[in-house]
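Session log. Operator J.P. requested a structure for one protein chain; no other inputs attached. Running the standard single-chain path with token output.
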Amino acid sequence: MEPFVLYSKNHPYLHVASWESQYSHLVVGMSTRTEQNRNYALHVGNDPKHVIESRKSLTHTLSFPFESWTCGEQVHDNHIKIIESSNRGRGRESRDSAFADTDGLITHESDILLASFYADCVPLLFYSPDSDIIGVAHAGWKGTVKNIGVSMIEKFQELGADKKQIMVAIGPSIGSCCYKVDDRVVEPLHQVLPDVFQSSMITATTNGHYYLDLKEANKQLLLLAGLKSSQILVSQRCTQCEDTLFFSHRREGSSAGRMVAFIGKRRSNE
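Structure written below.
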């Protein structure tokens, strides 16, 4: 069953329904492009007023204050920031105020909405119910081979989470149906997943090209780190195929907008 379910109240978005039904204070999911082509990232060429309006609209729908929106300056690496209440809201209105060189965010605080941006890369969302810690990580192919997902698990453990309790939701991204890569991507992946060529993650095509399942690669890395399959949800949605729901850099090039994956804890069960 698809874990990222479309929710259409006021501002359509996808939510991880099973997590939210079990933990009522939790808000977790991913935006869609909607009829307004809502874009959430303050990249060069984007209209900042439109982006901030989109962010405000989404936080209102989620019953979070706009001041809770907190994000990093994603650089396709594996750097992770622990968010405290004192730095809540970094990056909400300008890229310059976001956490520099940061692709992973973790917090134990309530009333902080962790936000991360996508247009084909893999969203990784984390929750540990025993310690009530949340996190989000941006995993393009570079972040994947640098094992950002496992680095997030290790940070959770440093903060007191039990590895056996940590749950991960791997969100919509470009699928193996569309993600054609070459040895520049596959060889570094082979270094961290030695069995990759014997797995279903890769399908060889012609002239040294392959179709790659990057979501499955992230899952396999998490399994190697000691998580169980029962702790991991994986979306089957492809951002390149589903053009009415998602932006896609592969499909639209540099003009592509960005979706946002988010996770936060409300102070009360609203």
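Operator note: The radius of gyration is 17 Å.
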